[in-house]
Amino acid sequence: MIGMRISHYQILEKVGEGGMGVVYKAQDTKLDRLVALKFLPEHVSVGSADLERFIQEAKAASALNHPNILTIYDFIEDQEQSFIAMELVEGESLKTKIVEAKEKGSRLPISQVLDYAYQIAQGLFKAHEKGIVHRDVKSDNIMVTNDGLIKIMDFGLAKLKGKAGMTRAGSTVGTPAYMSPEQIQGDEVNEQADIWSFGVVLFELLTGEHPFHGEHESAMMYSITNEDPKPLGNLRSEVPFELQQIIERCMKKDRSQRYASMSQILLDISKLRPAAGVEVKALSLQAIMNSLKRPAVGVPLVLVILVLGYFTYWYVDRGAKIRWAHEEVLPEVDRLIGEGKWASAYFLARQIEGVVGDDPLFVKLRSLYAARGVIRTEPPGAEILVAQYGTSPENWISLGLTPTDTIFLPRGLWRLNLRKEGFYTFDGSGFFLWGSFFWGGGGTIKLDSTGSLSENMVRVPGGMYTLNIPGLDHLEPVRVDEYFIDKFETTNKEYKQFVDHGGYQKKEHWKHPFVENGRTLTWQEAMKEFVDATGRPGPSTWELGTYPEGKADYPVGGISWFEAAAYAEFRGKSLPTVHHWNIAAETRASAFIIPASNFEKKGLAPVGRYPGSSPLGTTDMGGNVREWCFNSSDNQRSIMGGGWNDEPYMFTDYFAQPPFDRSSTNGVRCVKVLEPEKTSPAAYASIDRDPYRNFLKEKPVSDAVFKIYRSMYEYDRTPLNAIIETADTTSDWIKQKISLDAGYGGERLTVFLFAPRVGNPPYQAVVYFPGSGALHTRSSRFLEVWWIDFIVKSGRAVMYPVYKGTYERGTALNSDYPSETIIWKEHMIAWGKDIGRSIDYLQSRSDIDANKTAYYGVSWGGMIGPILTAVEKRFKASVLYVAGLNFQRALPEVDAINYVGRATVPVIMLNGKYDNFFPVETSQKPLFKLLGAPLQDKKYVVYEGGHFVPRNQLIKESLDWLDKYLGPVK
Fold first, then answer.
1. 459 contacts 426 by C-beta, under 8 angstroms
2. What is the chain's mean pLDDT, rounded?
3. CA-derived radius of gyration, the chain
4. What is the bridge-based pairing of β-strands 797-801 and 763-769?
5. What is the rounded CA–CA span in Å between residue 154 and residue 173?
6. What span, in angstroms and rounded, lies between the C-alpha atoms of 857 and 869?
7. Spatial CB neighbours of 524, under 8 Å, sequence gap ≥ 6
8. Does residue 323 have a pLDDT over 70?
9. Cβ neighbours of residue 230 under 8 Å, at least 6 residues apart?
10. Phi, psi for 322 (deg, rounded to 5)
11. Could you tell me which CATH number the domain at 93-270 has?
């Protein structure tokens, strides 16, 4: 073809050839410039997949205009000579540079690798911004011009947003050595696939080797999906640790653990490379010394050169920082605002405030993530420091001295630190919502002088307070006087002092009658109850009168309410009322506090280990151990905050247990009220919950009326229009995010399907309904899988719908308590339709045996399980975990009493004996008795404990039940 003229291009010489095309250097006779022409190989036929990819490359690359992406000038489509006219790059590929360095026995300089990495990331960021995933990022597809400019090429396998890919589901595309695990497994891919490949390229640039072993294609693919990459630090020890971390994060097998976007990578790389793209050459020491030998001329000249050099560097540096702010930081700030991460946006934007000044875009974004706030202290003159919630102290940012009303404060929750010499440091957090700033009481923050009180107590201002606890919002506000509360839960070491000082022998510490099941025990009888595992006085978790070795700073657990009250008396303090506890905990900030608290179900932690502090600075008020409070409730005593093995929503809900209960998670935190007489007696009163219902005496509606009620859950069986949006693979399952048409209102329903990695399809399926934490969480990114993992590991699939009102589908509904309102009715009906559409989707899949489907509900899901299984008759079994009938009434169309007898599916109930939400006699047993399943097809198991069942028993009973009614897995 050399010498030929095609269209207005004169072919000059052949440049290269590969499987996807032949490239020639040519002269554009119209614009008088050199270009590259890429032709398909001669064997490619019209209408072939290779031709489709060729066209795809032209469309994808032509949609992009970026200096780090090869520019497409034209696409000429002809039956015999289709070709792409594109930018001619004078240079060589990264692969060639790597090979050349290895042949010389060296490696590319780290500074050069960082420069290449930064440019590649910029190009990919631009592609992803336009909805284009490259899918074949590798060192062969990245050119470096003679001027050092990166050019990303070959978009033939790119996936365009909104368009079907070039491959069928289950097939793979790309180059094996650079493919992500999800590409190898044939799953749907997104930007994280390019991020993985980017990490592989960086690894190769630094070491000259691939991060995974494999002598042939299959071995390489096995290594990528099943083995860890080679340790980069072992291959090149001088690579900065921060750069190693960037590469490791890019190559996480679970894509949810990788960087979320290329913009985040750009931010991290920018911290490791010079801010300016132009270097100011330093004067040599010898040149300066020679000039100084002639002071009359040399000194002034050197000074001029140094000054000019400084200002040149300053100018270039500032220009680079302004570009960095506009091209990288502000887009990332905008993204964080969109996700509701206002505090994260605030602290990121602080890095560029001195660079952008009053830039209009910056000012506009700041109005979304921050607002002017007032911080006052008594006395004034305290330094104000802020940091991201949950971060370490080295990240503090100083905002000046109090008082001030001129500073911008982030919306959401963030750490607040106030320091003044001679006073205890206030170490809490600020909570700024739209138009209001508060810190657990608001107003002026009073600092206490050193030595005036225990350093481990914090001050809480007095005032009128309403409980922020679902189900107790009917209680009137009460006046609470100023008080102090322990910063930490009581530790084993502190409680040991009570034991060693005769706490169990001195009656003066025990102020309350020992009433158990209506009978008052004598002092001697009660003391026999309060012994450790070896019969000595002390918590149930101790032995031989002391705590386990190495657990001095862990919270004491295994104590009754009476022991907690006696300990408080010993300290000259008292148990907090529920009001005292709730004010200090600030449960309105639960969305921030819960994720940073010990609800991980991994065991106790030393006090203060987790960063989930309240606005006042108290730690561990959520999780770790439950904390006894003063108030009684139906012959029980309040215990708040939840423990390490409780559900996270226990932080916000009310809970009570028998005062003699000595569960391992029962602990204590004390308060000291300055003037108790100024606190309303109502704060100490018994907690009045909604009245119980005698379900066994209530009469359900007739079959004819119920038929009308059930018809409200019907929907048109229209096409699902299902789309698999993402697929993530772990060692235990393949998790697919799927969207489909809901059964109402033109809405889309998102469901997560966890398919097992063991067993053989078609898989039995379990449809999950979560606890009420899903109502208070606005992102399904981190689903709670602790309750379902064992089901998937058993070889069954789990369907996890995002029900209306939960996660991203959040609505005005903010409580799982039934109510006689239209909003509850509408949501209950929507949940029934969400269940129905989920099963419709399961029936559409060949890898699922939809005829063997079970329902599994936890807490809230257990409560409404009888309604959903009465409506949806395709279930073959049901597992209700900590379930019962709610005392709150709903409208009759959606009240459980009218459904429970019609729930005939085989069902097992797993409950706790001391469950405050669902008491045994008045809630659990009535539910079990009224369930419509035949007696031989229902089972009720109750365990010692509260709103929790031991995990081993949960697994055993649940899987045994599924095996019995769905059959063993294949």
1. no
2. 84
3. 33
4. parallel
5. 13
6. 11
7. none
8. yes
9. 207, 209, 211, 212, 213
10. -65, -40
11. 1.10.510.10
pLDDT digits (tens, 9 = 90+) for 643-653: 998 877 788 78
The confidence score (pLDDT) of residue 166 equals 37
Residue listed under structure tokens 């065991």: 603
Residue 474 to residues 471, 578, 635, 853, Cα–Cα distance (Å): 7, 15, 20, 40
The Cα–Cα gap between 314 and 502 comes to 71
Provide the terminal-to-terminal Cα distance of the chain, rounded to the nearest Å: 61
pLDDT in tens, 479-491: 999 999 999 999 9
Burial class (CB in 10 A: 0-12, 13-18, 19+), 292: exposed
Burial class (CB within 10 angstroms; exposed 0-12, middle 13-18, buried 19+) of 31: exposed
Q: What is d(CA 26, CA 195) in angstroms, rounded to the nearest whole number?
A: 34
Task: Check for a shared fold between 5-87 and 93-270.
Answer: no
Largest CA distance in the chain: 111
pLDDT tens-digit series, residues 332-347: 888 777 666 778 888 8
CATH code of the region 696-966: 3.40.50.1820
Short-list 591, 517, 600, 589, CA closest to 785: 600
For the record, the structure tokens of 195 come out as: 């991020």
Q: What is the pLDDT of residue 740?
A: 96
Domain positions in the chain are: 5-87, 93-270, 285-347, 360-455, 483-684, 696-966
Q: What is the pLDDT of residues 86-126, one digit of tens each?
A: 888 888 889 999 999 988 888 998 888 998 999 999 889 88
Is residue 2 within a helix (H) or strand (E), and if so which, with residue range? none
Structure tokens at 268: 């991290």
User: In the prediction, which pLDDT does 946 show?
Assistant: 63
Q: Mapping DSSP to helix (H, G, I), strand (E, B) and coil, where does residue 799 land?
A: strand
Q: Does the domain spanning 483-684 belong to CATH 3.90.1580.10?
A: yes
Domain 5-87 falls in which CATH fold? Phosphorylase Kinase; domain 1 (3.30.200)
| Whole-number Å distance between alpha carbons of 232 and 241 | 10
Could you give the 3-state DSSP secondary structure of residue 186?
coil
Please, are residues 650 and 666 in contact by the beta-carbon 8 Å criterion? no
Model pTM?
Answer: 0.51
Following CA atoms 243, 248, 249, 254 in sequence, which dihedral angle do they give, to the nearest 10 degrees? Answer: 170
Q: Which tokens in the block code for residue 161?
A: 């947003």
* Closest to 885 in 3D by CA, of 846, 925, 916, 914: 925
